[in-house]
Write a structure and sequence with these properties.
Strand content: 35-45%
Distance between the termini: 67 Å
Number of strands: 22
CATH architecture of the domain at 272-377: Roll
Length: 383
């Protein structure tokens, strides 16, 4: 065994300490270059807002508005369509959005910018800036656009945590209802985990219900807590008249945290699809089970087709041969298409799941590797 002296041990220890100190110094100096820009995802209270427990309600309203409203965008979308006579007609809509980073990315609703051929953004004042569409997700009604504005015009709206909310908690909404720019309304969280649907009929789980006044034009604007953090994206109202009736809904900000990086990177959210067109069993007559999803069609090249799942087909004598009925995935019960959406949202492309189906009166399990459905085949009703 090789022996070393005490003097050699001290020398090795000294060299190790120098090396460690140098490594730490280099990391502190250059490490930030290897970290993603997470400034938009901080949950710290917005600067300039007094601790709400130490301020009056009026002071809190004033401070939140003064601090956050410069980061709320007035979005104008323009589209052009040719009518029956060949004339080009211009259509214009408006909504709200929130600046989420110093690169000019703005978070809004998908329905605010859907189909727009031209986008512009205005902050405080009359100056209007051009913007471009970055990406959108109709399934969650969220989209990201990017404004071409100087950085000193960009006020970042910090993001909070929508998983830590309570009914009765104070909230504030800032938006542009009926074109009235940067309007503040206040209220409370009226309910949590409300099921709402996107325009493509996709269920959005866990929506925040509020009585803060939300009207047309508020769409895409932030729902804030008393610290000035965005906890939701105002999206829908429930109203017979079309105006605010005290029942508004916001998409939880934690959904945005999950999908915004993918929208910025890829323009779309890549989700695994089972690759079927299905109907809820409980909407059909004379079915062998009361709940589940009947496979009407299997998409060629999709997950279900590759695994051998069967769709509904006509027989030679003019009758119908029922396809497989999906009743569970990985032991989780599938009662309808909403359950199917919810379960698949928890999975990743490439995951292998065990799909329980009812086939010819017998239950069987099929191993399915989840694939992404090609864009050209992404149509409503296909899961």
């Amino acid at each position: 065994m090789y022996k070393i002296s005490a003097r050699q041990i001290l020398l090795i220890a000294l060299l190790s300490a120098i090396f460690a100190a140098g490594t730490v110094a280099c990391f502190n100096r250059f490490g930030n270059n290897f970290q993603p820009n997470s400034s938009a995802y901080t949950e710290a209270p917005a600067a300039g807002i007094t601790d709400p427990s130490l301020a009056t309600d009026e002071q809190n309203n004033i401070e939140v508005y003064r601090t956050i409203s410069p980061g709320v965008a007035f979005i104008t979308s323009t589209s052009y369509q040719r009518d029956y006579f060949g004339q080009v007609r211009e259509g214009e809509g408006s909504g709200s959005g929130s600046v989420i980073d110093d690169q000019g990315h703005i978070l809004t609703n998908y329905h605010v910018v859907e189909g727009a051929q031209k986008l512009s953004v205005r902050f405080a004042g009359d100056k209007t800036y051009p913007a471009k569409y970055v990406g959108g997700d109709p399934d969650t009604d969220l989209a990201v656009i990017k404004v071409e504005a100087p950085r000193d015009q960009l006020t970042i709206v910090p993001l909070g945590d929508s998983d830590r909310l309570s009914v009765g908690q104070k909230v504030l909404a800032i938006g542009n209802p009926f074109g009235l720019d940067r309007t503040l309304t206040t209220g409370v969280i009226s309910g949590l985990q409300r099921p709402i649907r996107a325009r493509n009929d996709r269920p959005i789980e866990g929506a925040i219900q509020t009585d803060a006044s939300i009207n047309p034009g508020n769409s895409g604007g932030p729902l804030l807590d008393s610290h000035g953090r965005m906890i939701g994206i105002n999206s829908q109202i429930l109203s017979p008249s079309g105006a605010s009736a005290g029942v508004g809904f916001a998409v939880p900000v934690n959904i945005a945290k999950r999908i915004v990086p993918e929208l910025i990177k890829n323009g779309v959210v890549r989700r695994p699809k089972l690759g079927i067109g299905g109907r809820d069993v409980n909407t059909l007559r004379s079915m062998p089970v009361e709940e589940g999803v009947l496979i009407i069609q299997v998409v060629p090249g999709g997950s279900a087709a590759a695994a051998g799942l069967r769709g509904t087909t006509p027989t030679e004598d003019g009758d119908i041969s029922l396809g497989d009925i999906v009743t569970a995935i990985d032991g989780e019960k599938v009662r309808n298409n909403d359950d199917l959406y919810r379960i698949l949202d928890k999975r990743q492309i490439g995951d292998v799941v065990k799909v329980e189906v009812l086939r010819n009166g017998a239950r069987t399990n099929v191993q399915v590797r989840l694939l992404e459905l090609p864009d050209s085949r992404r149509t409503p009703g296909r899961r």
